[in-house]
Design goal:
This protein is of the alpha+beta class. It has 4 helices and 10 strands; from the N terminus they run ααβββββαβββββα. The strands form 2 sheets. Strands 1-4-5-10-9-8-7-6 form an 8-stranded antiparallel β-sheet, sandwiched between helices. The protein starts with a helix and ends with a helix.
Length: 205
């Protein structure tokens, strides 16, 4: 298992979904990658902020991609997040905290000009509710609003854990795009990332 920040960051970069992992036509957004020394945190006012990594996290990385607007259809925007914790217990605790956040903040400010509302979440261990790919998984859906794209638009997020690593994918629709298009991209991206985590952890056994 990764023991140092350098090992953890190498794993995160190897696993985090690149545009081709989401499906045909996806490209990098700008900025493409987050600063791996910081992670998103939901504050007491239900606003997402970026803060330095806590001692329990070795590295985290977010990559942003999109299926560009075309033929009168808006862009499908997706993100992939990989977080490598120091221990499996730390990763498990993050999953529990994440589930609590949607209950505490059903309406959240993502960044200036972007918000989500009416969030509903669900968790399942391996073997429950169709989860056969990870030790633990959470899903969340709601309505997305954007000064640029309007709203309400479809919003879906999934986070899964394998050992001390959590991977998350999030997608947002736009005018002319179906919910199924977003779901298909997220399903493909999440599957690729979980397979990548398995392969990376097996290398280090």
């Amino acid at each position: 298992m990764p023991k140092t920040r350098a090992e953890a960051l190498r794993l995160a970069r190897a696993v985090a979904a690149t545009p081709v992992k989401w499906g045909p036509g996806f490209v990098k957004r700008s900025p493409y990658e987050s600063d791996p020394g910081f992670r998103p945190v939901l504050d007491a006012n239900c606003v997402w902020q970026r803060e330095p990594l806590p001692a329990t996290v070795l590295a985290t990385l977010t990559r942003y991609s999109e299926l560009p607007a075309e033929d009168g259809k808006g862009p499908i925007r997706v993100a992939a997040v990989v977080t490598v914790h120091r221990t499996e217990k730390d990763a498990d605790w993050e999953m529990a905290q994440t589930l609590e956040e949607s209950l505490r903040c059903p309406d959240q400010q993502l960044r200036q000009g972007e918000r989500i509302s009416d969030l509903r979440s669900q968790g399942s261990d391996f073997g429950q509710l169709g989860n056969i790919t990870s030790e633990d998984t959470l899903s969340e859906n709601g309505e997305y609003y954007s000064d640029e794209l309007g709203g309400p638009l479809y919003y879906y997020w999934v986070q899964s854990r394998l050992a001390q690593v959590t991977v998350a994918v999030v997608g947002r629709s736009a005018k002319g795009r179906s919910n199924e298009e977003v779901d298909d991209a997220l399903h493909q991206g999440a599957g690729q990332m979980l397979s990548g985590v398995e392969g990376e952890l097996e290398k280090q056994e």
